[in-house]
Queue: 4 jobs
Job 1
Amino acid sequence: MPGEAPASLFARLWPAIVRREPKALRRLRVENLAGLAGAVLEVGAGTGTNFPLYPSTVRRVVAVEPEPSLRALAEQAAAAAPVQIEVRDGAFEDLSPLAPEKFDAVVASLVLCSVPEAEHALAQAFSALRPGGELRFVEHVAAAGALGTLQRAADATFWPRLFGNCHTHRDTVGAIRRAGFAVDRSRLVRVTPAWLPNPAGSMAVGRAVKPA
């Protein structure tokens, strides 16, 4: 529309990137959503990559995405999804417009790496959940050794500028615990071959619960 700001470099790149996601990452997305039920809040929905993967036990999904060009693609994906999905303009860092609704689950996929303050965003997710509700996450996380060194160098230079403020060397699982969640399962995965120096190759998939 006239007067709208042009899409960011990341927003222009991201649709092509997710169309070429490694099969290992898609399997992690499926694992992350398995067993969900009830009302779900997805934060940082992007183009709606998760939408076709939601199980039929999910009653409805509210998906928030702040980037207009990505949100438009997410709306298209929602129309073809197997469950009811409502796409809204919104950011992980401020979920207050959704109050007082409480959700059975919050889904975060490749988003905690890019928010300016992960613990603040996680506090928002904590508040949006009912007692006993769960956070499902699949996220870039800090690695050890040579890959960790590469991550720190990438985060300090070109990587955040190119990939929408993504920081690959974050203690995301620790941040989830510090936000008050009980992490009941989490595992580390390499989604790219060990010989490939990819800062985003180290990921964690897991589930955390808001204490009842």
Job 2
Amino acid sequence: MWDTVKLWLREIPVSYEIIESVLMVIGILAVRTLLLGAHFRSRPDLSIDAKRRALVMSRNVTLILVLLGLAMIWAAQIQTVALSMFAAAAAVVLATKELIMCLSGSVLRSATKQYSVGDYIEINGLRGRVVDINLLNTLMMEIGPNALVGQLSGDTISFPNSLLLNHHVRRDNVLGPYVIHTVQIPVPIHLDSDAVVPRLKAVLEPLCAPYINDISKYLEAVQVEKLFITPAAEPRVTRVPHDDKVYNIVVRFAAPVAKRLEIQQTVLDEFLRVQHRLLNPNVG
């Protein structure tokens, strides 16, 4: 039957490869639509991030399948063109260097699982929450303008995946639903740290207390399953010398991802109140 279809296609006054390519693309897109629809219907409780992750993955897999299919259909023509264009191969490589690096960065990200949709990452000074990933670049919602605030600014940032080859990636939520969060607070050197640290601990510890047991059990499970050396879940406030003008108070705590900014802001608010009282001792 397939031989008959091939003979019929060859009689159409259009290139056989073009018809095969169109049918192949339509077929792959149709299969993708059916599979996505079935997946969403079978799991109606999926979160937005999970649905978005499935869409991104299906789109990238579809693109790869289409490229592979086109390469197979046009293999003979590609081979002929490749042989005739061998002399220009070096120039093509140089011209497409950035494209090749982007594709290599995408392969590296997939192989090492550096991040996925919904993760909070920082790379080359760019910080945000990943909302889309393709073979060439990554799109994320910017976090800023101040790193201490940690809120989404409403702007988007797109960076080429080639950055993954030359810069390290910092990922906040590597522990899934929980995060070990650290914030450094610069303090004027003449302010007594013994008057600041106890107040920050008094605010921080009650905020973290409801989550410590659950996070500790989760970290123990991660350590056993993935052989990670996981940090402690208890909150800590430490002092670190910096220079002759300021020292740093380092606040570190474990919390659910959704609660970390709320806890951080409460600690920063308390610090500002304490600093104000220390700088203005005569004010009521």
Job 3
Amino acid sequence: MQSTAAKGAAMAEATSRERGIDRAVAILEYLQARRGPVRMGELAKAIGAPRSTLYEIVGRLTAARILEPAGEGGAVFFGRAVHYYAQTYVAGVDLLSRARREVLGLATETGETAQFCMLDGDKYVVMLNEPGRRTFRITSEVGIRLPIPWTASGRLLVAHLDAAGIAGFIPAEDFTLPNGERIDPAEFVAETGAARARGYAVTQELVDRFTRCLAAPVIDRDGRAVATLCLVTPLDTPAERQGALLDTLLAAARRLSLAPPGAVGL
């Protein structure tokens, strides 16, 4: 039988290994949030790891090309292997693979910035983004987690929830916009109901006062919006063109859906 000392050593090794995995994940999450090279000192402080341990983990991730040296002062950033993994992920997930074609097609056909968006926990995130042809381009970075009430897509992605469900799901602070203005939760609930009834959502001047966002739901077999397709347009876009853009957007969303967009939350 294994001795008490041996069992203790094995448990300590397992705990150390788990802590190392947790720190590796923390490194990747911090780099994603920073979106740029980070020096080792800052990284050690950010994730609360001893430098000796951090150097060991970073060394292993660098050897695997998950990280790579970037800039001066021993800074590191994501390596090329992350790009390979991401491309494989998109190609291997049917919905994302088809969405990539639709997003590219929307941007090419309309000349506007096109996006494919989903929920990440209790936040909204752009999964795919294709800038339009305008000299002044409206872009949103892929992978940045934003409060749901800030977006047109958010009103569709939680349209299956009632008022109590929305209150329990969206943190109270997420109803405050970057400029300090606060979205009335009751009005937000009403807007989700209206979006569900229409089968699309339109918002303007929430995060950027010069833009309007058109969002159409991608529906699963249960009639729930699992994702959205969006067009981000200048605020002064004429109503007639906005209507044409919305028709094009809804057609693209129907091609991705397993149920008609009008069936949101049904």
Job 4
Amino acid sequence: MSGVGSSLKGRLILITGCTGGIGQATAKAFARVGCSIAIHYNAASSKAKAETLINHLKILAPPDVKPRFAAFQADLSRYDEARRLHAEVVSVLGNPDILFSNHGIAGPKIGPDGDIRDISPDIFEEVWRTNTGTSFLLAQLCVPYMESQHWGRIIFTSSVAAGNGGVIGPHYASSKSALHGLVHWLSLRYAKEGIPTPVLTSSSVTADTAMMANPSPEAKSKIPVGRLGKPDEMADIVLLLASNGYMTNKVIVADGGWTIGGF
């Protein structure tokens, strides 16, 4: 086995939000290179989708390895559920070598011309807790094992809203920009321990996800390549980031050219 991802053979990755578009595509990409995968799903109604994904991953896995796949349900708007998720993954599959924190919610959409009074503090806090708080907690829970073996990867899914305000609202945009600050601190602290921490900024322009299932013509018009991204394109980037121990403290913007430069 050679090429991107070949060094990851035998590693365990925890992917949150794994039954969504980006999550499923990423699970398939990591299965192809021989990784074991902890599949997280949020709603009980997604259990069948998670089980179907596991069956597909078994087919994709290389014949010379025996990766393990298991599904775990948790409501990641709650800290106690994030702790339970991590504990169950460790009990069933072991400690994750790679965390891809990909879950998140949008909350109410008020748009760039909305009224800030339409977002209550309770809504603001729920979106932050889900998008930022439990991502932080999962990283906190995963780091000690990664540090002990001097190898690990922590990757977050962000959004172009973190850099330009986006099309949803202040609650969502600010929760995603907070991930960028978290990445910068984690990278400065733990890169020397073999744990690079980049963030993939893409989700609000990715097709085939619930958040952008029916994009407006206005949203599409902002993208120079003329279309929304594909989950497979995002998965390729996650695989590259996990494979590269030198790429850290960076916001990787995959948005079809919507934004100019980095942020």
